[in-house]
Amino acid sequence: MTVGPVIIALDASAQHCSAALLSKGQIRGYKQTQARGHDSLLLGWVEALLAEAELSRSAVDAFAFAQGPGSFTGVRIASGVTQGLAFGLDRPVIGLSSLQLLAEQAAAASPDAEGLIVSLLDARMGEIYGGVFSRMMTGDVRTQPVGQEWLGTPQISDLPTSPWLGVGEGFSAYPELQAESQRIAPGLFDALPDARFGLQVAASRYQSGQLEPAHQAQPIYLRNQVAKKAGGL
Amino acid sequence: MIILGLETTCDETGIALHDAAAGLLAHRLFSQVKLHAEYGGVVPELASRDHIRRILPLVEQTLAEAELQPCDIDGVAYARGPGLAGALLAGAAVAKGLAWALDRPVLGVHHMEAHLLAPMLEADPPAFPFLALLVSGGHTLLVEVAGVGRYHVLGESLDDAAGEAFDKTAKLLGLPYPGGPALEKLAAVGEPGRWVFPRPMVDRPGLDFSFSGLKTAVVNAVHNTTLDEAARAAIARAFQDAVVDTFAIKVKRALVQTGLKRLVVAGGVGANTVLRERLQAVAGAAGGRAYYPRLAFCTDNGAMIAYAGQQRLSMGEQDVGEVEVRPRWPLGELAAPLANAGLGPV
Questions:
Q1: Is the ipTM of this complex over 0.90?
Q2: What keywords is this UniProt entry annotated with (chain B) (predicted)?
Q3: Scanning A161, A216, B132, B198, which has the fewest C-beta atoms within 10 Å of its C-beta?
Q4: Domain B128-292: which CATH class?
Protein backbone atom coordinates (compact mmCIF):
# COMPACT_ATOMS: atom_id res chain seq x y z
CA MET A 1 0.00 0.00 0.00
CA THR A 2 1.32 3.42 -0.89
CA VAL A 3 0.92 6.11 1.76
CA GLY A 4 1.70 9.05 -0.52
CA PRO A 5 3.66 12.17 0.33
CA VAL A 6 3.34 14.35 3.43
CA ILE A 7 2.67 17.90 2.25
CA ILE A 8 1.97 21.17 4.05
CA ALA A 9 0.06 23.88 2.15
CA LEU A 10 -0.23 27.54 3.18
CA ASP A 11 -2.45 30.35 1.91
CA ALA A 12 -2.68 34.01 2.89
CA SER A 13 -3.81 35.42 -0.45
CA ALA A 14 -7.04 37.08 0.75
CA GLN A 15 -8.46 38.59 3.97
CA HIS A 16 -7.94 35.37 5.86
CA CYS A 17 -5.31 32.67 5.95
CA SER A 18 -5.25 28.89 6.09
CA ALA A 19 -2.89 25.97 6.53
CA ALA A 20 -3.46 22.31 5.70
CA LEU A 21 -1.68 18.99 5.90
CA LEU A 22 -1.86 15.95 3.64
CA SER A 23 -0.65 12.72 5.21
CA LYS A 24 -1.62 9.12 4.49
CA GLY A 25 -4.11 10.46 1.98
CA GLN A 26 -5.94 12.40 4.68
CA ILE A 27 -6.44 16.16 4.64
CA ARG A 28 -6.83 18.34 7.69
CA GLY A 29 -6.57 22.10 8.00
CA TYR A 30 -7.17 25.35 9.80
CA LYS A 31 -8.42 28.69 8.58
CA GLN A 32 -9.26 31.97 10.21
CA THR A 33 -10.25 35.47 9.29
CA GLN A 34 -7.63 37.72 10.80
CA ALA A 35 -6.26 40.90 9.35
CA ARG A 36 -2.74 40.66 10.77
CA GLY A 37 -0.15 38.34 12.25
CA HIS A 38 -0.45 35.78 9.43
CA ASP A 39 3.13 34.56 9.72
CA SER A 40 2.87 33.53 13.38
CA LEU A 41 -0.63 32.14 12.81
CA LEU A 42 0.48 29.94 9.89
CA LEU A 43 3.43 28.52 11.83
CA GLY A 44 1.26 27.81 14.88
CA TRP A 45 -1.07 25.81 12.62
CA VAL A 46 1.78 23.93 10.96
CA GLU A 47 2.95 22.87 14.40
CA ALA A 48 -0.58 21.88 15.49
CA LEU A 49 -1.31 19.94 12.26
CA LEU A 50 1.88 17.89 12.56
CA ALA A 51 1.22 17.23 16.25
CA GLU A 52 -2.31 16.02 15.50
CA ALA A 53 -0.98 13.67 12.83
CA GLU A 54 1.83 12.59 15.19
CA LEU A 55 4.47 13.62 12.68
CA SER A 56 7.80 15.34 13.22
CA ARG A 57 8.74 18.37 11.14
CA SER A 58 11.26 16.28 9.21
CA ALA A 59 8.42 13.99 8.03
CA VAL A 60 7.20 16.70 5.63
CA ASP A 61 8.15 15.90 2.04
CA ALA A 62 7.29 19.25 0.44
CA PHE A 63 5.86 22.69 1.21
CA ALA A 64 3.13 24.08 -1.03
CA PHE A 65 1.80 27.65 -0.91
CA ALA A 66 -0.65 29.88 -2.73
CA GLN A 67 1.59 32.19 -4.72
CA GLY A 68 -1.23 34.45 -5.89
CA PRO A 69 -2.86 36.36 -7.28
CA GLY A 70 -4.24 38.14 -4.24
CA SER A 71 -3.14 40.45 -1.44
CA PHE A 72 0.47 41.48 -2.19
CA THR A 73 1.44 41.35 1.46
CA GLY A 74 -0.43 38.09 2.03
CA VAL A 75 1.19 36.20 -0.83
CA ARG A 76 4.59 37.48 0.31
CA ILE A 77 4.00 36.20 3.83
CA ALA A 78 3.01 32.75 2.51
CA SER A 79 6.07 32.83 0.21
CA GLY A 80 8.41 33.95 2.98
CA VAL A 81 7.23 31.42 5.55
CA THR A 82 7.42 28.67 2.89
CA GLN A 83 10.93 29.74 1.91
CA GLY A 84 12.08 29.58 5.53
CA LEU A 85 10.45 26.20 6.16
CA ALA A 86 11.71 24.59 2.95
CA PHE A 87 15.23 26.00 3.29
CA GLY A 88 15.54 25.02 6.95
CA LEU A 89 14.36 21.47 6.32
CA ASP A 90 15.95 21.13 2.86
CA ARG A 91 12.67 20.30 1.17
CA PRO A 92 11.23 21.41 -2.20
CA VAL A 93 8.42 23.90 -2.71
CA ILE A 94 5.29 23.77 -4.87
CA GLY A 95 3.60 27.02 -5.96
CA LEU A 96 -0.19 26.94 -6.28
CA SER A 97 -2.64 29.36 -7.88
CA SER A 98 -5.02 30.92 -5.37
CA LEU A 99 -7.63 30.88 -8.18
CA GLN A 100 -7.18 27.13 -8.65
CA LEU A 101 -7.68 26.66 -4.89
CA LEU A 102 -11.07 28.31 -5.40
CA ALA A 103 -11.83 26.16 -8.45
CA GLU A 104 -10.96 22.96 -6.55
CA GLN A 105 -13.28 24.07 -3.76
CA ALA A 106 -16.13 24.66 -6.26
CA ALA A 107 -15.53 21.34 -8.00
CA ALA A 108 -15.59 19.51 -4.66
CA ALA A 109 -18.87 21.21 -3.77
CA SER A 110 -20.53 20.27 -7.08
CA PRO A 111 -19.07 16.88 -8.05
CA ASP A 112 -21.94 16.04 -10.40
CA ALA A 113 -21.99 19.32 -12.28
CA GLU A 114 -20.41 19.79 -15.69
CA GLY A 115 -18.93 22.71 -17.51
CA LEU A 116 -16.29 25.27 -16.71
CA ILE A 117 -15.47 26.94 -13.40
CA VAL A 118 -14.69 30.66 -13.20
CA SER A 119 -12.69 31.86 -10.17
CA LEU A 120 -12.68 35.57 -9.35
CA LEU A 121 -10.98 37.50 -6.56
CA ASP A 122 -11.46 41.21 -5.90
CA ALA A 123 -8.23 42.95 -6.96
CA ARG A 124 -9.42 46.35 -5.62
CA MET A 125 -9.00 49.53 -7.66
CA GLY A 126 -12.03 48.47 -9.76
CA GLU A 127 -10.38 45.29 -11.02
CA ILE A 128 -10.59 41.53 -10.53
CA TYR A 129 -8.21 38.59 -10.74
CA GLY A 130 -9.77 35.87 -12.86
CA GLY A 131 -9.10 32.31 -13.95
CA VAL A 132 -11.05 29.70 -15.91
CA PHE A 133 -10.77 25.98 -15.12
CA SER A 134 -12.15 22.81 -16.67
CA ARG A 135 -13.17 19.77 -14.65
CA MET A 136 -11.07 16.61 -14.58
CA MET A 137 -13.21 13.51 -14.53
CA THR A 138 -10.59 11.13 -13.10
CA GLY A 139 -8.02 11.35 -10.31
CA ASP A 140 -7.85 13.36 -7.09
CA VAL A 141 -7.20 16.68 -8.83
CA ARG A 142 -10.55 18.02 -9.96
CA THR A 143 -9.58 20.97 -12.15
CA GLN A 144 -7.07 22.21 -14.67
CA PRO A 145 -6.50 25.74 -15.94
CA VAL A 146 -7.90 26.86 -19.29
CA GLY A 147 -5.79 29.72 -20.64
CA GLN A 148 -4.00 32.39 -18.61
CA GLU A 149 -5.18 33.97 -15.37
CA TRP A 150 -5.86 37.67 -15.78
CA LEU A 151 -6.19 41.04 -14.07
CA GLY A 152 -8.79 43.41 -15.48
CA THR A 153 -11.94 45.41 -15.09
CA PRO A 154 -14.95 43.18 -14.39
CA GLN A 155 -16.83 42.51 -17.61
CA ILE A 156 -19.14 39.72 -18.75
CA SER A 157 -17.40 39.60 -22.14
CA ASP A 158 -14.23 38.23 -20.47
CA LEU A 159 -16.15 35.21 -19.13
CA PRO A 160 -16.84 31.96 -21.08
CA THR A 161 -19.81 31.86 -23.45
CA SER A 162 -20.73 28.29 -22.46
CA PRO A 163 -22.38 27.70 -19.04
CA TRP A 164 -20.02 27.94 -16.08
CA LEU A 165 -19.97 27.83 -12.31
CA GLY A 166 -18.71 30.87 -10.42
CA VAL A 167 -16.57 30.81 -7.28
CA GLY A 168 -14.78 33.47 -5.26
CA GLU A 169 -15.48 36.71 -3.47
CA GLY A 170 -14.87 38.62 -6.69
CA PHE A 171 -18.48 37.71 -7.54
CA SER A 172 -19.67 39.35 -4.31
CA ALA A 173 -17.76 42.50 -5.15
CA TYR A 174 -19.31 42.54 -8.65
CA PRO A 175 -22.74 40.79 -8.41
CA GLU A 176 -23.56 41.66 -12.04
CA LEU A 177 -21.12 38.88 -13.02
CA GLN A 178 -23.11 36.20 -11.17
CA ALA A 179 -26.05 35.68 -13.55
CA GLU A 180 -24.57 33.16 -16.00
CA SER A 181 -23.33 31.01 -13.13
CA GLN A 182 -26.75 30.27 -11.70
CA ARG A 183 -27.65 28.02 -14.66
CA ILE A 184 -25.48 25.10 -13.51
CA ALA A 185 -25.35 25.16 -9.73
CA PRO A 186 -25.43 27.76 -6.99
CA GLY A 187 -22.23 29.78 -7.11
CA LEU A 188 -19.85 30.05 -4.17
CA PHE A 189 -19.76 33.80 -4.39
CA ASP A 190 -18.33 34.46 -0.93
CA ALA A 191 -15.63 31.80 -1.12
CA LEU A 192 -12.04 32.58 -0.24
CA PRO A 193 -9.03 30.41 -1.09
CA ASP A 194 -8.47 27.57 1.37
CA ALA A 195 -5.18 25.66 1.59
CA ARG A 196 -6.98 22.33 2.00
CA PHE A 197 -8.11 22.51 -1.61
CA GLY A 198 -4.54 22.88 -2.87
CA LEU A 199 -3.19 19.67 -1.40
CA GLN A 200 -4.31 17.28 -4.15
CA VAL A 201 -2.85 19.57 -6.81
CA ALA A 202 0.36 19.70 -4.77
CA ALA A 203 0.45 15.91 -4.36
CA SER A 204 0.01 15.43 -8.10
CA ARG A 205 2.87 17.84 -8.80
CA TYR A 206 4.99 16.08 -6.19
CA GLN A 207 4.39 12.69 -7.81
CA SER A 208 5.34 14.05 -11.23
CA GLY A 209 8.45 15.78 -9.90
CA GLN A 210 7.28 19.36 -10.55
CA LEU A 211 9.25 20.74 -7.61
CA GLU A 212 11.30 23.88 -7.02
CA PRO A 213 14.08 24.84 -4.60
CA ALA A 214 13.15 26.98 -1.57
CA HIS A 215 14.20 30.34 -3.03
CA GLN A 216 11.80 29.80 -5.94
CA ALA A 217 8.85 30.10 -3.55
CA GLN A 218 7.94 33.45 -5.15
CA PRO A 219 4.65 35.35 -5.41
CA ILE A 220 2.74 35.88 -8.64
CA TYR A 221 1.18 39.34 -8.47
CA LEU A 222 -0.38 39.85 -11.97
CA ARG A 223 -0.58 43.58 -11.11
CA ASN A 224 2.90 44.84 -11.84
CA GLN A 225 2.26 48.53 -12.40
CA VAL A 226 2.55 49.67 -8.80
CA ALA A 227 4.38 53.00 -9.00
CA LYS A 228 4.81 55.96 -11.29
CA LYS A 229 8.17 57.25 -12.34
CA ALA A 230 9.01 60.53 -10.62
CA GLY A 231 9.03 63.90 -12.29
CA GLY A 232 9.95 67.05 -10.36
CA LEU A 233 9.57 67.34 -6.61
CA MET B 1 26.05 30.85 19.76
CA ILE B 2 25.72 31.56 16.01
CA ILE B 3 22.99 34.05 15.10
CA LEU B 4 21.65 34.67 11.61
CA GLY B 5 20.53 38.29 11.16
CA LEU B 6 18.05 39.58 8.53
CA GLU B 7 17.68 43.28 7.77
CA THR B 8 14.75 44.31 5.53
CA THR B 9 13.44 47.58 6.98
CA CYS B 10 13.74 49.69 3.83
CA ASP B 11 15.67 49.32 0.58
CA GLU B 12 18.62 47.12 1.58
CA THR B 13 18.50 43.36 2.06
CA GLY B 14 21.23 42.58 4.60
CA ILE B 15 22.15 39.12 5.89
CA ALA B 16 24.88 38.20 8.38
CA LEU B 17 26.12 35.50 10.73
CA HIS B 18 27.50 36.48 14.12
CA ASP B 19 29.13 34.20 16.66
CA ALA B 20 29.28 35.12 20.34
CA ALA B 21 32.92 34.02 20.59
CA ALA B 22 34.35 34.59 17.11
CA GLY B 23 32.40 37.77 16.24
CA LEU B 24 31.13 38.53 12.74
CA LEU B 25 31.50 35.43 10.53
CA ALA B 26 30.14 36.68 7.22
CA HIS B 27 27.76 39.26 5.81
CA ARG B 28 26.08 40.05 2.52
CA LEU B 29 24.09 43.04 1.31
CA PHE B 30 21.94 43.79 -1.70
CA SER B 31 21.09 47.46 -2.17
CA GLN B 32 17.96 48.37 -4.13
CA VAL B 33 19.18 51.91 -4.76
CA LYS B 34 19.15 51.49 -8.56
CA LEU B 35 15.64 50.00 -8.45
CA HIS B 36 14.22 53.07 -6.69
CA ALA B 37 16.41 55.75 -8.29
CA GLU B 38 14.08 56.32 -11.26
CA TYR B 39 11.17 56.91 -8.87
CA GLY B 40 13.10 59.54 -6.89
CA GLY B 41 12.67 57.66 -3.61
CA VAL B 42 11.87 54.28 -2.12
CA VAL B 43 8.65 52.69 -3.47
CA PRO B 44 7.48 50.46 -0.59
CA GLU B 45 5.76 47.82 -2.75
CA LEU B 46 8.78 47.45 -5.03
CA ALA B 47 11.07 47.23 -1.99
CA SER B 48 8.96 44.43 -0.51
CA ARG B 49 8.92 42.54 -3.82
CA ASP B 50 12.68 42.72 -4.04
CA HIS B 51 13.32 41.61 -0.46
CA ILE B 52 11.36 38.39 -0.93
CA ARG B 53 13.51 37.61 -4.00
CA ARG B 54 16.86 38.41 -2.37
CA ILE B 55 16.71 37.07 1.17
CA LEU B 56 17.33 33.35 0.63
CA PRO B 57 20.05 33.63 -2.04
CA LEU B 58 21.89 36.03 0.31
CA VAL B 59 21.41 33.63 3.24
CA GLU B 60 22.88 30.84 1.09
CA GLN B 61 25.87 33.00 0.11
CA THR B 62 26.46 34.08 3.71
CA LEU B 63 26.38 30.50 4.99
CA ALA B 64 28.73 29.43 2.19
CA GLU B 65 31.20 32.20 3.02
CA ALA B 66 31.20 31.14 6.67
CA GLU B 67 31.42 27.48 5.61
CA LEU B 68 28.34 26.65 7.65
CA GLN B 69 25.13 24.69 7.11
CA PRO B 70 21.62 25.88 8.06
CA CYS B 71 21.66 23.45 11.01
CA ASP B 72 24.68 25.32 12.45
CA ILE B 73 22.46 28.36 13.12
CA ASP B 74 21.58 28.63 16.83
CA GLY B 75 19.09 31.49 16.56
CA VAL B 76 17.52 33.85 14.02
CA ALA B 77 17.18 37.63 14.45
CA TYR B 78 15.18 39.84 12.11
CA ALA B 79 14.48 43.58 12.06
CA ARG B 80 10.99 43.92 13.53
CA GLY B 81 10.85 47.68 13.08
CA PRO B 82 10.74 50.58 12.69
CA GLY B 83 10.51 50.53 8.90
CA LEU B 84 8.24 49.88 5.92
CA ALA B 85 5.52 47.41 6.93
CA GLY B 86 5.65 45.28 3.78
CA ALA B 87 9.43 45.12 3.83
CA LEU B 88 9.49 44.16 7.52
CA LEU B 89 6.91 41.42 6.92
CA ALA B 90 9.03 39.82 4.19
CA GLY B 91 12.02 39.44 6.51
CA ALA B 92 9.90 38.39 9.49
CA ALA B 93 8.15 35.64 7.47
CA VAL B 94 11.37 34.05 6.25
CA ALA B 95 13.03 34.38 9.68
CA LYS B 96 10.13 32.78 11.52
CA GLY B 97 9.74 29.95 8.98
CA LEU B 98 13.46 29.20 9.06
CA ALA B 99 13.70 29.30 12.86
CA TRP B 100 10.71 26.98 13.19
CA ALA B 101 12.15 24.54 10.63
CA LEU B 102 15.47 24.47 12.51
CA ASP B 103 13.73 24.33 15.91
CA ARG B 104 15.70 27.39 17.05
CA PRO B 105 14.61 30.61 18.81
CA VAL B 106 13.70 33.67 16.75
CA LEU B 107 13.66 37.31 17.84
CA GLY B 108 12.50 40.52 16.21
CA VAL B 109 15.02 43.24 17.05
CA HIS B 110 14.81 47.02 16.97
CA HIS B 111 16.47 48.48 13.87
CA MET B 112 17.69 51.60 15.70
CA GLU B 113 19.07 49.61 18.62
CA ALA B 114 21.00 47.60 16.05
CA HIS B 115 22.35 50.84 14.51
CA LEU B 116 23.55 52.21 17.83
CA LEU B 117 25.23 48.92 18.75
CA ALA B 118 26.94 48.68 15.32
CA PRO B 119 30.28 50.16 16.57
CA MET B 120 30.49 47.10 18.86
CA LEU B 121 31.37 45.09 15.74
CA GLU B 122 34.66 47.00 15.39
CA ALA B 123 38.02 46.02 16.84
CA ASP B 124 37.99 48.92 19.31
CA PRO B 125 34.38 49.06 20.57
CA PRO B 126 33.11 51.73 22.98
CA ALA B 127 32.35 50.77 26.58
CA PHE B 128 28.99 51.65 28.14
CA PRO B 129 27.76 54.22 28.95
CA PHE B 130 27.92 56.45 25.87
CA LEU B 131 26.03 59.12 23.98
CA ALA B 132 24.69 57.99 20.60
CA LEU B 133 23.73 60.18 17.66
CA LEU B 134 21.60 58.19 15.19
CA VAL B 135 21.25 59.98 11.89
CA SER B 136 19.67 58.32 8.87
CA GLY B 137 17.05 58.87 6.18
CA GLY B 138 14.31 57.97 8.63
CA HIS B 139 15.63 59.01 12.04
CA THR B 140 17.49 61.71 13.93
CA LEU B 141 17.99 60.78 17.58
CA LEU B 142 20.29 61.67 20.47
CA VAL B 143 20.30 58.83 22.97
CA GLU B 144 21.95 58.24 26.34
CA VAL B 145 22.97 54.58 26.32
CA ALA B 146 23.61 52.95 29.70
CA GLY B 147 23.73 49.39 28.33
CA VAL B 148 21.96 47.07 25.88
CA GLY B 149 18.28 47.97 26.02
CA ARG B 150 18.84 50.83 28.48
CA TYR B 151 18.14 53.90 26.38
CA HIS B 152 17.07 57.39 27.29
CA VAL B 153 16.10 59.47 24.25
CA LEU B 154 17.44 62.99 24.86
CA GLY B 155 16.29 64.58 21.63
CA GLU B 156 14.89 63.84 18.20
CA SER B 157 13.81 65.57 15.03
CA LEU B 158 10.43 67.23 15.26
CA ASP B 159 9.95 67.03 11.48
CA ASP B 160 12.25 65.74 8.72
CA ALA B 161 15.07 63.33 9.48
CA ALA B 162 18.54 64.66 8.68
CA GLY B 163 19.01 62.11 5.89
CA GLU B 164 15.70 63.18 4.39
CA ALA B 165 16.94 66.79 4.34
CA PHE B 166 20.10 65.58 2.56
CA ASP B 167 18.03 63.70 -0.05
CA LYS B 168 15.65 66.60 -0.65
CA THR B 169 18.46 69.14 -0.95
CA ALA B 170 20.32 66.83 -3.32
CA LYS B 171 17.19 66.55 -5.46
CA LEU B 172 16.81 70.34 -5.58
CA LEU B 173 20.41 70.54 -6.78
CA GLY B 174 19.79 67.94 -9.49
CA LEU B 175 21.83 65.23 -7.79
CA PRO B 176 20.91 61.54 -8.02
CA TYR B 177 19.14 59.60 -5.26
CA PRO B 178 20.32 58.85 -2.58
CA GLY B 179 21.68 62.33 -2.16
CA GLY B 180 24.15 62.09 0.72
CA PRO B 181 27.37 60.98 -0.99
CA ALA B 182 26.83 63.15 -4.11
CA LEU B 183 26.01 66.20 -1.99
CA GLU B 184 29.14 65.76 0.13
CA LYS B 185 31.26 65.55 -3.00
CA LEU B 186 29.72 68.70 -4.44
CA ALA B 187 30.00 70.59 -1.13
CA ALA B 188 33.74 69.87 -1.05
CA VAL B 189 34.26 72.25 -4.01
CA GLY B 190 31.68 74.82 -2.86
CA GLU B 191 32.59 78.36 -1.88
CA PRO B 192 32.08 78.70 1.88
CA GLY B 193 29.95 81.58 3.16
CA ARG B 194 28.28 82.54 -0.14
CA TRP B 195 25.05 81.38 1.50
CA VAL B 196 24.48 81.01 5.21
CA PHE B 197 21.51 78.85 6.17
CA PRO B 198 19.89 78.79 9.62
CA ARG B 199 21.14 76.36 12.28
CA PRO B 200 17.72 75.14 13.36
CA MET B 201 16.83 75.21 17.07
CA VAL B 202 20.37 75.82 18.33
CA ASP B 203 19.36 79.00 20.17
CA ARG B 204 16.71 77.13 22.12
CA PRO B 205 17.39 74.95 25.13
CA GLY B 206 16.91 71.22 24.71
CA LEU B 207 18.25 68.63 22.34
CA ASP B 208 15.53 68.30 19.71
CA PHE B 209 16.14 68.93 16.02
CA SER B 210 14.19 70.40 13.13
CA PHE B 211 15.24 70.28 9.50
CA SER B 212 12.19 71.46 7.57
CA GLY B 213 13.14 75.14 7.92
CA LEU B 214 16.58 74.42 6.56
CA LYS B 215 15.01 72.70 3.58
CA THR B 216 12.86 75.80 2.94
CA ALA B 217 15.98 77.98 3.07
CA VAL B 218 17.56 75.77 0.42
CA VAL B 219 14.41 75.95 -1.75
CA ASN B 220 14.50 79.77 -1.54
CA ALA B 221 18.21 79.90 -2.38
CA VAL B 222 17.75 77.61 -5.39
CA HIS B 223 14.80 79.63 -6.72
CA ASN B 224 16.41 83.03 -6.21
CA THR B 225 19.64 82.44 -8.03
CA THR B 226 21.00 81.32 -11.38
CA LEU B 227 21.79 77.73 -10.60
CA ASP B 228 25.20 77.38 -12.27
CA GLU B 229 27.82 74.88 -11.18
CA ALA B 230 29.41 77.27 -8.65
CA ALA B 231 26.05 78.14 -7.11
CA ARG B 232 25.05 74.49 -6.78
CA ALA B 233 28.31 73.70 -5.03
CA ALA B 234 28.05 76.73 -2.75
CA ILE B 235 24.49 75.82 -1.75
CA ALA B 236 25.55 72.23 -1.06
CA ARG B 237 28.39 73.59 1.06
CA ALA B 238 26.10 75.94 2.99
CA PHE B 239 23.59 73.15 3.62
CA GLN B 240 26.21 70.71 4.85
CA ASP B 241 27.81 73.37 7.05
CA ALA B 242 24.44 74.11 8.65
CA VAL B 243 23.75 70.43 9.35
CA VAL B 244 27.23 69.74 10.70
CA ASP B 245 27.16 72.85 12.90
CA THR B 246 23.75 71.90 14.26
CA PHE B 247 24.88 68.41 15.21
CA ALA B 248 28.13 69.72 16.71
CA ILE B 249 26.26 72.19 18.91
CA LYS B 250 23.66 69.66 20.08
CA VAL B 251 26.19 66.88 20.69
CA LYS B 252 28.40 69.22 22.72
CA ARG B 253 25.38 70.26 24.75
CA ALA B 254 24.36 66.62 25.32
CA LEU B 255 27.86 65.62 26.42
CA VAL B 256 27.89 68.45 28.96
CA GLN B 257 24.37 67.64 30.15
CA THR B 258 25.01 63.92 30.65
CA GLY B 259 28.67 64.06 31.67
CA LEU B 260 29.40 61.32 29.11
CA LYS B 261 32.77 61.17 27.33
CA ARG B 262 32.17 58.58 24.64
CA LEU B 263 30.16 59.41 21.53
CA VAL B 264 28.78 56.87 19.04
CA VAL B 265 27.66 58.14 15.64
CA ALA B 266 25.59 55.71 13.60
CA GLY B 267 23.20 55.70 10.65
CA GLY B 268 23.71 56.58 6.99
CA VAL B 269 24.40 60.30 7.56
CA GLY B 270 27.19 59.16 9.89
CA ALA B 271 29.08 58.21 6.73
CA ASN B 272 29.57 61.93 5.97
CA THR B 273 33.29 62.54 6.51
CA VAL B 274 32.95 66.25 7.35
CA LEU B 275 30.45 65.39 10.09
CA ARG B 276 32.70 62.60 11.36
CA GLU B 277 35.74 64.87 11.68
CA ARG B 278 33.77 67.61 13.36
CA LEU B 279 32.14 65.32 15.92
CA GLN B 280 35.47 63.66 16.67
CA ALA B 281 36.77 67.14 17.54
CA VAL B 282 33.72 67.87 19.72
CA ALA B 283 34.14 64.60 21.65
CA GLY B 284 37.88 65.19 21.95
CA ALA B 285 37.33 68.66 23.38
CA ALA B 286 35.03 67.08 25.98
CA GLY B 287 37.86 64.77 27.03
CA GLY B 288 36.54 61.73 25.20
CA ARG B 289 36.34 60.37 21.67
CA ALA B 290 33.88 59.40 18.98
CA TYR B 291 33.27 55.85 17.77
CA TYR B 292 31.97 55.01 14.32
CA PRO B 293 31.01 51.76 12.66
CA ARG B 294 32.91 51.05 9.46
CA LEU B 295 31.28 52.87 6.51
CA ALA B 296 29.50 49.70 5.31
CA PHE B 297 27.79 49.38 8.70
CA CYS B 298 26.70 53.04 8.92
CA THR B 299 23.97 52.30 6.40
CA ASP B 300 21.48 49.46 6.86
CA ASN B 301 23.09 46.02 7.09
CA GLY B 302 22.51 42.53 8.42
CA ALA B 303 25.57 42.47 10.68
CA MET B 304 24.10 44.93 13.16
CA ILE B 305 20.85 42.92 13.31
CA ALA B 306 22.77 39.70 13.97
CA TYR B 307 24.81 41.48 16.67
CA ALA B 308 21.78 43.02 18.40
CA GLY B 309 20.00 39.67 18.17
CA GLN B 310 23.03 37.98 19.70
CA GLN B 311 22.89 40.27 22.74
CA ARG B 312 19.30 39.31 23.47
CA LEU B 313 18.97 35.73 22.17
CA SER B 314 22.06 34.64 24.10
CA MET B 315 20.35 35.93 27.26
CA GLY B 316 17.38 33.69 26.52
CA GLU B 317 15.07 36.34 25.10
CA GLN B 318 12.91 35.27 22.12
CA ASP B 319 9.63 35.95 20.33
CA VAL B 320 6.74 34.25 22.10
CA GLY B 321 3.34 33.77 20.47
CA GLU B 322 2.05 36.03 17.72
CA VAL B 323 4.62 38.77 17.30
CA GLU B 324 3.78 41.48 14.77
CA VAL B 325 6.17 43.80 13.00
CA ARG B 326 6.33 47.38 14.32
CA PRO B 327 6.55 49.93 11.47
CA ARG B 328 6.58 52.58 14.22
CA TRP B 329 8.46 51.57 17.34
CA PRO B 330 9.86 54.18 19.74
CA LEU B 331 13.36 53.23 20.91
CA GLY B 332 12.46 54.25 24.45
CA GLU B 333 10.05 51.29 24.70
CA LEU B 334 12.92 48.81 24.80
CA ALA B 335 14.13 47.17 28.00
CA ALA B 336 17.33 45.37 28.90
CA PRO B 337 17.55 41.73 27.70
CA LEU B 338 15.47 39.47 29.88
CA ALA B 339 15.38 35.69 29.73
CA ASN B 340 12.04 34.28 28.55
CA ALA B 341 10.43 37.73 28.52
CA GLY B 342 10.53 38.07 24.78
CA LEU B 343 9.58 41.11 22.80
CA GLY B 344 6.01 39.87 22.77
CA PRO B 345 2.95 41.57 21.33
CA VAL B 346 2.73 45.22 22.26
A1: yes
A2: Acyltransferase, Cytoplasm, Iron, Metal-binding, Transferase, tRNA processing
A3: A161
A4: alpha beta
Q: B100 and A46 in contact by Cβ < 8 A? A: yes
- Asked if CATH classification 3.40.50.300 holds for the domain at A7-97+193-221, the reply, yes or no, is no
Looking at chain B, which runs of residues are DSSP E strands? 2-7, 12-19, 23-31, 75-81, 106-110, 130-135, 140-147, 150-156, 262-266, 289-291
Cα of A175 vs its chain's centroid, Å: 22
Q: Is B74 annotated as a binding residue?
A: no
The pTM is what? 0.94
Q: Is B85 on the interface with A (CB under 8 A)?
A: yes
| Cβ separation B97–A37 shorter than 8 A | no
Where are chain A's structural domains?
Answer: 7-97+193-221, 99-184
One digit per residue, the tens of pLDDT, for chain B of length 346 reads: 999 999 999 999 999 999 999 999 999 999 998 898 888 788 999 999 999 999 999 999 999 999 999 999 999 999 999 999 999 999 999 999 999 999 999 999 999 999 999 999 999 999 999 999 999 888 899 999 999 999 999 999 999 899 989 999 999 999 987 789 999 999 999 999 999 999 888 888 899 999 989 999 999 999 999 999 999 999 999 999 999 999 999 999 999 999 999 999 999 999 999 999 999 999 999 999 999 999 999 999 999 999 999 999 999 999 998 899 999 999 999 999 975 554 444 3
Which among A206, A192, A200 is positioned nearest to A99, based on CA atoms? A192
Q: Domains of chain B: which residue ranges?
A: 2-117+297-333, 128-292
Pick the residue of B62, B72, B74, B100 with the most A CBs within 10 A to test the interface with A by mutation. Answer: B100
- In this complex, do B70 and A90 lie within 8 Å of one another by their Cβ atoms? yes
Nearest to A179 by CA among A197, A200, A163: A163
Chain B residues in contact with A88 by the CB 8 A cut-off are: 70, 97-102
